[in-house]
Design goal:
The longest helix has 12 residues. The chain is mainly beta and 391 residues long. The N terminus is likely disordered. The protein is 9% helix and 32% strand. It folds into two domains: 198 residues, no CATH class; 168 residues, Calcium-mediated lectin (Jelly Rolls, Sandwich), CATH 2.60.120. It has four helices and 25 strands. Pfam families: DUF4114.
């Protein structure tokens, strides 16, 4: 489950809400799509929203490449059940979900759909109690998320195969064939938790959500150790990097990785999970991120040409006397970030030189655990901004 900071639930030009023009009044949703789409690659959602429950999904495709903060508000009015609510990423307008544990795709109604959806919500969605009230959340932009409810039970019961009833806004996925989801006139999602509809009061869980694209304020301490390319949005920025190692006995690896906010949050591109400095797995996530859309190079490389996507902020890291392969294969290499909280020794291994009027920046790095000899010349890196071309 990915949690984040609370944000205002008031709407604005940058907000995305679940508001709709009118209430849905049909008893059973028609999820038939005239021209079904071929499921797209993992990590991307189709360009079409579901034909019937389109007002019951959360469309974050306009925030591609960003970590989107949101606020769910959920209440349970009369339910005797202790229900669990969740959202999971779907891949197309039919509600196809990819099980993150085996990579297989499941359509609503297929055996294994409920388990796959719950596993997906655990990987890069969210689950919470229907009585929770306000629930802050962080989701990866560029995808569409659908809701579900576990009736009077927990996600653990679903994962353990104890036979809990799981209801979706895609009616074909429900064992009773009943449409358990409605949309209210003020844009909230209302859920009925009883098998076959029960009393059909649709107030057993009522959920609303507000999302906004985060703005990145530069970190207050290591602001001279990050690469701020936000002014070059939509452009490919060419960099000339000069990297030297003056006295180090180590064969160090240096890299740049994209961060999502001032805390240094990074999204692991292989799982979609977000990590903050200090979280278990942060070092692996930043190395994977640098391989996806950053850059890595030897501390002794000399001149290095690189291109990065504008519109983002990049932080720096060093792998001490090891390689990217050592980190990704779990061989225990020390990874140091310019965000001190990420470093196992709690030491600040980076000194920044600031950005010059000529458009260059640089930093010096100490590669020894705990600071060692404190010479800060084990990797000295200078970066010059060469050009920005349309992406």
């Amino acid at each position: 489950m990915i949690m984040g900071e609370s944000v205002s639930s008031s709407s604005s030009n940058s907000s995305l809400t679940t508001d709709i023009a009118q209430a849905q009044t049909t008893t059973v949703l028609d999820t038939t799509v005239p021209n079904p789409l071929t499921p797209p690659p993992v990590g991307s959602s189709s360009s079409a929203l579901p034909a019937a429950p389109q007002d019951q999904v959360f469309d974050l495709r306009s925030f591609a490449g960003k970590l989107v903060r949101g606020l769910f508000n959920t209440v349970s009015i009369t339910a005797d059940y202790d229900n669990t609510v969740g959202v999971y990423r779907i891949e197309d307008d039919q509600g196809t979900v990819i099980d993150p544990t085996n990579g297989r795709s499941y359509a609503p109604g297929s055996e294994g759909y409920s388990l796959a959806a719950v596993r997906r919500s655990q990987a890069d969605g969210i689950t919470f109690s229907a009585r929770a009230g306000d629930v802050p959340v962080e989701l990866q932009g560029g995808a569409v998320y659908a809701p579900y409810l576990v009736a009077n039970n927990t996600v653990e019961s679903v994962l353990q195969g104890t036979g809990a009833n799981v209801y979706f806004n895609f009616t074909a996925a429900n064992a009773d064939g009943f449409d358990h989801f409605r949309t209210t006139e003020d844009g909230k999602i209302a859920v009925e938790d009883l098998f076959n509809g029960g009393d059909q009061d649709f107030n057993d869980a009522i959920v609303s959500a507000t999302f906004e694209a985060p703005t990145i304020d530069l970190p207050t301490a290591p602001e001279d150790q990050v690469l701020d390319l936000r002014s070059q949005g939509g452009k490919a920025v060419r960099l000339l990097i000069n990297s030297q190692s003056i006295t180090a006995d180590y064969e160090n690896t240096v890299g740049l990785y994209r961060i999502e906010d001032a805390l240094g949050t990074v999204i692991d591109p292989s799982t979609g999970t977000s990590y903050k400095p200090g979280d278990d797995g942060y070092g692996l996530a930043i190395v994977r991120r640098s391989q996806a859309d950053g850059v890595t190079f030897s501390a002794r490389a000399g001149d290095v040409d690189a291109t990065l996507d504008g519109g983002n902020v990049y932080a720096t890291y060093l792998i001490a006397d090891a390689t990217v392969d050592d980190v990704t294969s779990g061989r225990g290499a020390n990874v140091y970030s310019n965000f001190v909280a990420a470093n196992a020794d709690g030491f600040d291994h980076f000194i920044g030189s600031g950005t010059t009027a000529a458009g260059s920046t640089g930093f010096s790095i100490e590669d020894l655990f705990g600071g060692g000899d404190l010479d800060f010349n084990d990797a000295i890196v200078t970066i010059t901004f060469e050009s920005a071309e349309p992406a």
